[in-house]
Every structure is written in C-alpha cells, then in structure tokens.
Amino acid sequence: MASPQSPEGTLPDGERPLIMRYAARSDVGRLRSKNDDSAYAGRHLAVVADGMGGHAGGDVASASTVLDMIHLDHDDYPEGADTVLADEIQTANSLLSELVHVDPKLAGMGTTVTALLLEGRKLHFAHIGDSRAYRLRGTTFEQISVDHTFVQRLIDEGRLRPEEAETHPHKNVLMRVLGDVDASPELDLNVLDVEAGERWLLCSDGLNYVPGPVVEQVVRETRNLAECAELLIQLTLANGAPDNVTVVMLEIAEETDDDVSTAAVEIVTPAADAPEDEASSAKAADSAEPQDADAPKAAGEPPAVTDPHLGEHLSAEVLREELASRPHELVGAAATAAETGSIPTVAGRSVARRAATMLTHKAEQDREEILVLPVRRRRWLTALAAAVLAIFMVAGLWLGYAWTQTRFYVGEYDNRVAIFNGISQRLGPIQFSKLESVTELQMSSLPEFQQQKVRQTVPAESLEAAQRIVQNLEKPDGKPTPTPTPTPMPTPSPCPAKPTASAKPAPGAKTTASPTPSPSPCKGVTP
User: Fold this and answer.
1) Same structural domain, 208 and 350
2) Which of 81, 383, 390, 518 fits 77 for a cystine, CB–CB 3.0-4.6 Å?
3) Phi and psi for 236 in degrees, rounded to 5?
C-alpha cells in the first residue's frame, strides 16, 4: 500500500498514513418493496447512492454507479486524485445513459451520489442529489453537503424557512442527479483537510425522518461505528421508514501495523471442496444484517457449463475477485447485484469484459472496439442533421434580411428628420437598417406629437413614400397636402330656349309689349 511521502521520500517523523474505519448498513424500510439504495465503504473510499425510477431501475442506477467506483479504493495516485473522483462519477453517468439506450424501459432512472476519497491527508468530496454528508470534528457537527432540491433552492433564495422544508409538498423534487438526462451533470466538488479522529456520516435521504438533533447525538455518543450505524437504522424504522435508508459511518484514523498485515487477507480463496455456504459465511461473520454480508463465491470456482446464466456468473466472479482484494463493506442494491450475479450489462459486449471495464477500467480498448461502429454512425447522422439544420437557418435568415432591405422608415438622426432603408427593429447587436438620407428639417421645429411620432419611426413601403412623409412634416400645420380636384366648366346649350307665349292679360291690367324674337341660330328651328 502506497503512503504519502515527504519530498525526501520518507514519511515525516511521527506521522503515519491515514485510513478510514467504517461501518455500513442499509434497510428497505417499512413501505417500499425493494431497496434502491447502494453504498460502499473501504479504507480510502466511501460512497452512498440513492436510486430513483421506481420499479423501472432505481436499484440498477445506484448499484451500477457504486460498483463502477469501487476500484478507486486505494491511495496510490501518482498524478494526484484532484479530478479522479469527479471523472469516475461522470463515467458512471455515461454508463447509465448507455444502459437506457440498450433497455428503453429504464428511461428516467437516476441516482444521487455522495462520495469521499481519502488521499494522504486530503479528503476529496463529490456530491450530487439529496443524499447527505455530515462531519463531526472536535465539538462541531455540521452538514458538508448541500441538497440539490427544489425546497433547498427556495431556502437559499430566502423564500422558505428551513423548518418549513420537511413539510413542503415538493421536498423530494431533485434539481440535479446522475442519469440519462444530462450528459455532463454539475457536481459539487471540494478538497478538505482531514484530521485523525474526525467522524463522517454519509446517508441517503431516508434518514431525514430522524430529527437532526437526534442524529447528531447518536453520532457524538456512540463510539462503536457498527452500533452507531445500526442505531440510526433502528431509529428510522421506529419513525415509520417510508423510504429506503442507508447509513455509512466513518472515522479517520492513523494506519497501524495490523491494518497493513490484514489489508489483503480476503484475497485468500476458500478450498475448492468447501461447501458454498461455508465460503459465503466467512465473509458475513462481521455483519449484523444479512444484506450487509459480502459473501462471494470462490473466485476460482467455475459455474456449470449447462447454466443458462453463465455470462452473469462470469461477471459476478470478476466482481467478487475485485471485492476480495481489499477490506470493505457493500450494502443495498449493489450488494444484491454482487451476490446474485445480476450485474448491469450492456448488450453487444462480453459480460466478462463489461465487468472488467466497470470495475477496473482495464478493458477500455475492448470497449471502444465494440462501440466504435454505432458511435461513428450516430456521430455521422448527428453531423448530417446539424448541417441540414444550419443550411435552413442560414437561408431563412438571408431571406428575412433581404426582405427588410426593401422597406423604409422615417426617423431621427442627429436631431434632424432622416430617412432609413430597412426596418427599425434589431436582433441583439445586429441592426436591420442603414441611413438613407438626412433632411434639413430640425426635430425641434416639429410639434411635440410629431416629434414623438418620428422618434418611434414612421414606416414606409418605398423611398418615395418616405419622402412624401417628410414633405408633409415640413408643412407648418403638419397636415398632408390635399390633391387639387379640377372643376368642370359648364357646357353651353347648342340652342337657345324656345320662347313661350305670355299669358293673356287680365282686363284693365297694364301690359308690356313683347320683344320681337331674334332669328334662331339653330338650323331647322323656327323662332
């Protein structure tokens, strides 16, 4: 086992490497039919994952993620572990997307992850979702993780009080998780200084049904880690346990000679003729609950060739060999997968290669060879679709811009009335008009209502129409010039009116002589 060294190549005087003491427990709860939680605890790695997706695949998501990370349980990172933990979680996220692609029934599955990786005297922390991490250092007990939930966002924005969060109807709505939705989910990452003697509690949100002060009291006062984890589980069950609950208790301690000598004791394979139950019970002796037992079959014991589930056993053997290489505790759905051999697999790969890739990442080359054809085909189709979409977008934008250049409007420029070619709207920094001409008409010479109208721009269908608008603005009253309508001249009658005989005068009345009618100029008319 590698140890942190000083620049001179030796450990500082009086300083020994730090490791994790651990205990892990998980329970399905009182209402759920299956356990969607998974957890792993070892000397350098601890991780809790709370799966979601109901019957479809919550247990698959959490088990796949935890089993994909267990190979990190060591302290030998020559280039540093700054990004190792985050990269591994992103790899696990890609695996979930791959599993959904193979089996669409798993669509919508996801999982939270809260993990600690101990390297020397630094603790690398990664978190997404609403599982939690608490630290007890000295007399200070505090929550290190921040829930990625809707109610936590309301609390951060000051719209909800913390004490109201537990009764909020949307308290279980998650804003960030691993799954098939986001190809690169945002993780909370940190590197913390660590001290011997400090304690950590990692748990799924099922423990939230135990009041916070009670959890703190149990962590402070229960010295035995296994008893502490067990007591927290029992308190959850006593409070109804409507959800799965998983607890990992850790204590940072200096490595001892006994730790070094027993680091790989479990790699010893039971005798071939030993009964399977005895081989399994050797691993389960230190566990208080059946689901906490890591009971692998002998790594060298081949399954019967007539077994229809041969591939599953092969992947389980690779998994068990990896687990047997170091002390650890594996609980929840991940433990069930390891015991039954139901390791999440991807069609088109050999199961043994799939397990090796998931556990040790030593088969990346094989994995790339198997996936290279579908990946290239998907990339080609994606590129083609993007190119066609880009062509349509460019053509649409060009046609739209060309149309705008057939329009005009009257507006303001340098405190004068001006004519512009285009439209007055703009798209971000892109202006769809240009200055056509500036008139001598000052804005200040216009009435107030016309100034406002020009500033808001007056659209015109053509340059001539825009020029007429300017001419109308130049008139003192601002009214449009009326177009004169010609008045028709009267047409003289070709013939004069025919004289009429005067009425007979009444007796005694004075009369005037009638004038003698003049000859008529009209042909054929007798005056």
Assistant:
1) yes
2) 81
3) -65, -45
Please count the other Cβ atoms lying within 10 Å of the Cβ belonging to residue 79. Answer: 7
- What distance in Å separates the CA atoms of residue 382 and residue 20, rounded to the nearest whole number? 46
pLDDT, position 475: 76
More confident: 401 or 351:
401
Q: Please, what's the b/e burial string for 87-102 (b: 16 or more CB within 10 A of its CB; e: otherwise)?
A: ebbbebbebbebbbee
Please state, in angstroms and rounded to a whole number, the distance separating the CA atoms of residues 110 and 36. 10
Banded pLDDT at 393 (limits 50, 70, 90): confident
Q: What is the mean pLDDT of the chain?
A: 76
* Distance in angstroms (rounded) separating the CA atoms of residues 289 and 292: 5
**Would you say residue 527 lies in a domain?**
no
Q: Domain residues for 144?
A: 18-362
pLDDT for 348 equals 41
Rg, the chain, Cα only? 44
Please indicate, yes or no, whether residues 260 and 326 belong to a single structural domain of this protein.
Answer: yes
Total domains in the chain come to 2
Indicate whether 204 and 294 sit together in one domain.
yes
Band of residue 5 on the pLDDT scale cut at 50, 70, 90: very low
Q: How many Å apart are CA 370 and CA 354, to the nearest integer? A: 11
* Helices and strands (H and E) in the chain: how many: 14, 17
